[in-house]
Amino acid sequence: MERTNPADGRVLRAEGLCKSYGKQQVLLDLNLTIEPGCIYGLIGRNGAGKTTLLSILTGQNTMDAGKVTYGGEPVWENPRALSELCFARELNATAETAQISVKEYLYAGQLFCPHWDKAMADSLIEKFGIDRKKRIAKLSKGQMSMVTITAALASKAPITILDEPAAGLDVIMREKFYRMLLEEYAATGRTFLVSTHIIEEASGVFERVIVLDEGHIIADRPTEELIDEFRYVSGEKTALDAALAGHGVQPLQVQELGAHKMAAVRGDARLFAALADDPALTVAGMNLQNVFVALCGHGDEEG
């Protein structure tokens, strides 16, 4: 899939974002640009600041410093900018909305989302087999995820942000969700930003991936380009250590089993070709989940 040319009027931009809760700094001078016509994935460890970032981007949370703009206009308390954004959070039984019915929840979406597609919302709720009269609090976790997904897709917002949309779904429903997301993207060219812990299943959907770690964005790249920067290199410990040192490479993560050692390495095609030419070593590709662990594991051994 090709990304459309950025249009200044449809760009969501964060500059110099800082956010703390008490003494804990959550976001540290963070910069991010969300351009139109792309499916972004946001990944990070628990507590990395993903939900905080998303809530600030959509004007639902304050920042200590920095600014967020959409089309060059501030997002905060700006109805024109906010009308173009949808932030679909994971529902739970203790939320303020939990005591209203599914029908009332979707009606609220219709009131607050000027691009709302009622026919789509009705169709998805019917497809998911959800009772419109049932209170949110009485839904299963999976059904809550389905309602969240329905609201996000039916919002038709030019920039639609979903926070852990598939958390309550089984593997079959997760596949259906990603298929629906791709179909909607292909039909409309809407921008989607999806935060998820289920990385490998979603990696084929993300055109671009943003990695958030300890309040900083440490990667913001086209997904395949990012993955291609990493390899697993393995071999006898002494031989592997000597080869990596000879190329000036510091491994991101290592795993040892007896005299055998495997290292996650970041580099380019020339480095990987040189390592692959060494008969004492084996070089293998990594997937997005492997890359995430290497970047955010901070040297911890893999389990």
TrEMBL record:
It comes from the Bacteria. Pfam families: ABC_tran. Residues 12-239 form the ABC transporter domain. InterPro entries: AAA+_ATPase, ABC_transporter-like_ATP-bd, ABC_Transporter_VariousFunc, P-loop_NTPase. Keywords: ATP-binding, Nucleotide-binding, Transport. GO terms for molecular function: ATP binding. This is ABC transporter ATP-binding protein. It comes from Gemmiger gallinarum.
